[in-house]
Amino acid sequence: MTNVLCVIPAKGNSRRLKNKNGVLLGKKILVQYTVDAAIESHCFSKIILSSNDDNILNNVIDHDLLEKHKRPDYLCEDNIRAKDVVKYYLEQDNTYTHVALLMPTTPFRNQKDIKNAFDITYNKDADTLVSVCEFEFNPWLAIKVQDNKGIPYFSENLQWDREDKYSKGYHLNGGIYIAKMEYFLKHETFFDDTSYVYIMPRIRSIDIDTEEDFELATMLLNKGNE
Predict the structure, then answer these.
(1) Are 9 and 69 in contact (CB under 8 A)?
(2) Looking at the domain assignment, is residue 159 inside a domain?
């Protein structure tokens, strides 16, 4: 029988978009979208909302499955990664079969996405699974800029090949991370070369990290409510 922990990390001291996890997107604060999706997926035995910000913790609607945790200050420092927060809670209670990390900055990932991702995890007996989406451009065409010059990450000859010559490229979208608890504690990762993936469309993969991201999410939300 599965016993699954969900961790939603939502610290308050974000930099590029101030207090992004608590910013109002439509009629709800940003993190509420992820909390609602987690609850409505019916995939979790417990959902932990972890934050150092009392306003975020107080403004999220209570639910029987939801535990609001005031995160220790040392777990909010710049060098702390989301997986470190997950490890912190598993070290307090390691009775789970699986653990999931849901980032609140991907608000359009919904309950069906979570359920579908868990279906793959269980059907494949996957140690880990991550959600991904397709690059909007061929990743083989990527360049870096140094001294105002464009330098291809790969061969410059690739810039002139037909795009359909190469397979599609995908990237992690931050929406869903799942792992068997024992595998996570041993390897301290949700992603390696054994991971399965759940492919999501780009429109539900928007990751809000900047003011421009937030404006785009607001436009999409308003369009969906028309």
Answers:
(1) no
(2) no
Q: 143: Cβ–Cβ under 8 A, 6 or more apart, which residues?
A: 150, 151, 152, 153
Distance, CA of 191 to chain centre: 12
Q: What is the CATH number of the domain that holds 188?
A: 3.90.550.10
- pLDDT tens profile 163-215: 666 778 899 999 999 999 999 999 999 999 999 999 999 999 999 999 999 99
Give the domain range for residue 40.
Answer: 4-132+170-224
Determine the straight-line distance between the first and last CA of the chain, rounded to whole angstroms: 42
147 in any annotated domain = no
Q: Are 66 and 60 in contact (CB under 8 A)?
A: yes
Does 101 fall in a domain?
yes
Q: How far apart are CA 172 and CA 158, in angstroms?
A: 23
In tens, the pLDDT along 143-172 reads: 889 999 888 877 666 566 666 667 788 999
Give the residue with greater pLDDT, 125 vs 224: 125
**Is 98 a domain residue?**
yes
Model confidence, pTM: 0.91
Give the total number of structural domains in the chain: 1
The confidence band for 78, taking pLDDT boundaries of 50, 70 and 90, is confident
Average pLDDT of every residue of the chain: 91
Of 175, 130, 118, 120, the C-alpha closest to 3 is 118
